[in-house]
Batch of 3 targets.
Target 1
Amino acid sequence: MYRTAASRVRALKGQTGYRGSARYATTSVVAAKSSSGGFFSRLMGEQCSSLPSLNFPLKDVNLPPPLPDHVEPGQTRITTLPNGLKIASEMAANPVASVGLYVDCGSIYERPASYGVTHLLERMAFKSTTNRSHLRIIREIEAIGGNVTALGSREHMSYTYDALKTYVPQMVELLIDCVRNPAFLDWEVKEQLQKLSADINGSFRDPHQLLLEAIHSTGYSGPYANALLALESAVNCLNSTVLEEFVAITHFALAFELPGGWLKEKDAIILTVLQMLMGGGGSFSAGGPGKGMYSRLYLRVLNEHPQIQSFSAFNSIYNHTGLFGIQATTESNFAINAIDIAVKELIAVATPGQVDKVQLDRAKESTKSAILMNLESRMVVSEDIGKQILTYGERTPLGHFLKVVDEITRQDIAKTAQKLLSSPLTMASYGDGNYIS
């Protein structure tokens, strides 16, 4: 077929006379010396024009000097102001700066009268201040091509502003104004309360988020039981007065050194490696090509039980405490079996000799890979600096965490898993509970 098509094209070219044919022949000879052409060029009886080789430097182009063999990463510098405020900065080659303001403020500081206020405070970020209207704030951010975000968690509230380094003074000034001088206008609060209700309704479509909140409310009896997502019953109790009182109470730092969580660093890192070791994912995808395919839960559970749609380990580590467990999605009539499987898998990693060296080494390499890849993101680096300053008062070098990961042994994994099993068990379920007894 292709040969017939090429013949017809040549026949059409031939109808234009000897001059056109000669031009066609001459062009072919010249092009043949420089390029063989592509498939469609040959099909049409033509040849590709030549391109300069990329194996040789171009004329009159000055290349920058190559980087040395070893380049030290930027060092974090911490400056403490007379009022006690700590400023942590790190130089990066990126032309964009990420400025963050991190506060010891979250749902663990909420009182019964202010449940859900952290969720509302996150929504009220970068709204009107005593010095600027919301419209002016938006216009100033747009004028420099900036991007702002706010995120509330159980222990921290973060405000970040990204833009070109040239505009750092403007970024800092606007960020401080938005955090220190919020106006909490009644009409803006009412507007965000409506969006809060929409967030709550949308959360019912995310069973994983609901289960995580249920685990916290059941597993803890103190402030960590406070819901991060506002409850529908609490929305009607929230207003600008509640916001003002919460900000006045919580926007300063109090530190109590208690055992557990990130303050017990090695145990927290072992839990992270244990999560990687157990792994898991969905029956269709583990999150990307090859991710988690050789983890224990994927090989021993998802590959063996088609009734299970997803089965994965999770952890939530805070400054003073943490949670570790297994989250599963399965057919209702298989739920009780899935619970038994989860318990058996936790017992297995707590049993000495059940985790071999190959599995542990793979989990340790995956942990280090996840840490390093996450720190390639400018926003993650900014968040990491802020949260480490709040937790430790300084930023621990990256090499320290990688060294701790390398030093973890199979005995450490078994010992930590045994600690988990000796603590009170918490379980939450969402869906048809008739099959769970």
Note: The radius of gyration is 30 Å.
Target 2
Amino acid sequence: MTDTVMRLQSARRETTSASGVSWGAIIAGAIVASAFSLALVALGAGIGLISVSPWSSANPSVATFGVLAGAWLIAVQLFASGLGGYLAGRLRAGWSETHEDEIYFRDTSHGLLVWALGAVISASLLASAVSSIASGAASLAGGAAHAAASTAQAGAVAGAAMAQPDRPAGGAGAMTGYFTDMLFRADHPIAADPAADAQATRILAVSAASGDMSSADKGYLSQLVASRAGLSQADADKRVADVFDQSQQAKTKAADAAKTAADAARKTGVYVALWAFIALLVGALSASYMATVGGRVRDEAPIA
């Protein structure tokens, strides 16, 4: 009788001191979940690329594409994390003398650990892959664009230098040059005057930046316009005012376009973050639940 009691006490001490975490099963489940997740992401990317084409006008809208991508991401987490959790439950150690509530808690924790470790592994691999792909694509595109731009720029700059050497080219300079051309348009051919063009361009650029044109600049530009375009002083004054108003409208339109693009990028970031959160939450629940399923199957058919 005494020997039996001592053996039971020894068994209880061994059961109590044994670790409740089977790290081997957790790591195995996380690796499988990560690999399966990457495979499904690659499949989804392939399907997404097949569904769109620059030559087709029937491509899905950005909103539709975003919803489908988010739904696919949720499905990836559901199946990949569930598979990893199930494997962790099946491969864990047996807890023969542990209460079923404690076993349920441990299985759920195993599934949660599989999901957490798998998410870290998948995020690291995806970040590395995306970085490598983006770097390679940028390098190839940059080389091609640089070669084409160098050839085109050489001809454009040479032509601009011959025609109007003092006028800035490209970007804001090209836009300001366009409004300078509007100032001096005439019904008859006029002689080129690079110095006058350069002065008018600088006045327009400074006025556009400040949002106002001084009376002295308006008067000087009106005299230049009246002299070169053959207009009366009143018509020259009106042209200067009209051109300046159009330049301000163009500036406002460009600023609004930049704000619209920034707001679209912000909304995209919000949607991506929300979809990612929902997908990860689904993955955590799936891994935890499937770990309990795997653990229950493992206990019904114990493995020595």
Note: Residues 22-135+268-300 form one domain.
Target 3
Amino acid sequence: MNQRDDAEVAQRNTLQVPDQFLTPLPKTDRKYSVEIPDDAEIIMVIVSKANLRELATTKSAIIEEIPYGNSLIKLGGSGDWIKVQTIDSGTVGFVFSELVQ
């Protein structure tokens, strides 16, 4: 593909939206920092997404959706459920054990 072809593809794949329909996202300077102990067990999500829940049951509220490949700190277990903490935000909850490794 040459530069002209690239420009034509870009033009065809561009959607113009009037500014009146766009709402800017709020700016945030929040930075998250989670201290990971040296002896922490790190596990990873092995499915497209894993639901992080408040309690160890599918009836519990979903706190966050954790995408494939994200690492979690294992805090403990409860039957088929594992208590974890997210590394990026520090959120604590439960994931179903078959969704992580």
Note: The CA atoms of residues 18 and 95 lie 42 Å apart.
